[in-house]
Write a structure and sequence with these properties.
The chain is mainly alpha-helical. Helices cover 50% and strands 7% of the residues. The protein has eleven helices and four strands; from the N terminus they run ααββααααααββααα. The strands form two sheets. Strands 1-2 form a two-stranded antiparallel ribbon.
Length: 272
């Protein structure tokens, strides 16, 4: 407690994370006291609010219940589309990089990227805990991670998550669709996925079109801003009839089709 007070005294009036938390309105927790559907009544009791969210997200995530791997017609349509798309494909050497056994060095490197006090999952263990006891935990994580990498089933506890609903800034907080669910998964599983992400980072540039700059290493958003400005200038200077369209797919990640995504990875040459 004394350390905490001293740290607050030393840093709360400086351009640092404590001040950022003080002035950031999103850090203030606001309980959901009323919610409504777009065309429905308002719900004010905890049970009714929970039921409204359950109904909304059940419909959202189950929008195509027949779109599964067992739907042969669907899988044939997906395969036909991807076959005609002339997709790039991973070379054999890259495939081996993805499936090589995980090393203690990789776990340590991934752990170094993680912020120590990020919100943990249901088990309550933070990255600070894993960093503090790295020497004892990394060898144990190594065995578990390599078992998962080769097709082993993760412990059931690793697949649990705490789901938090965050209101979208600038939207009506009483509408059920204006919240985004955040799944707080356990730190050990996030560490495993970080290792796979770091391996994949080296390959993304050869698989994803140059026009896609978001979340790709060594690509910057200003590249597309500059390209757009150049296109506007060219169209104006040469009298080229042009149209710019901005598209925003509602709940795009939530509506992603798992059969399509797995088929896409297969066509790109990712190992099963």
């Amino acid at each position: 407690m004394l350390w905490s007070k001293q740290r607050y005294y030393d840093r709360s009036n400086k351009m640092d994370s404590p001040m950022a938390r003080l002035i950031n309105p999103r850090s203030q927790y606001s309980p959901i006291t009323v919610i409504r559907d777009r065309d429905g009544p308002s719900h004010k009791t905890p049970q009714a609010i929970r039921d409204a969210f359950t109904k909304y997200y059940t419909a959202l995530y189950d929008h195509s219940p027949d779109h599964t791997h067992t739907n042969r017609v669907l899988m044939q349509e997906i395969d036909s589309y991807l076959t005609g798309a002339s997709l790039p494909r991973l070379p054999e050497s890259s495939m081996e990089t993805l499936i090589d056994a995980i090393t203690e060095e990789e776990i340590g490197k991934a752990l170094g990227y993680m912020k120590p006090h990020k919100a943990p999952g249901p088990d309550g263990f933070t990255y600070h805990f894993y960093k503090s006891f790295a020497a004892e935990l990394i060898p144990r994580l190594l065995h578990t991670f390599n078992d998962m990498l080769t097709g082993g089933i993760p412990p059931p506890e690793s697949l649990m998550a705490s789901i938090v609903l965050l209101p979208k800034p600038g939207r009506d907080p009483q509408l059920v669709e204006n919240y985004r669910p955040i799944s707080l998964i356990n730190t050990d599983l996030k560490l495993f996925t970080k290792i796979l992400s770091l391996r994949l980072d080296k390959l993304l540039g050869s698989l994803i079109h140059p026009d896609q700059v978001g979340f790709i290493p060594n690509r910057q958003a200003f590249e597309n801003t500059r390209k757009t400005a150049d296109l506007i200038w060219y169209a104006s200077a040469h009298g080229v009839p042009s149209l710019f369209i901005s598209l925003d797919a509602e709940k795009a990640f939530d509506r992603a089709e798992w059969p399509f995504l797995f088929s896409l990875l297969e066509h790109l040459g990712f190992p099963s």
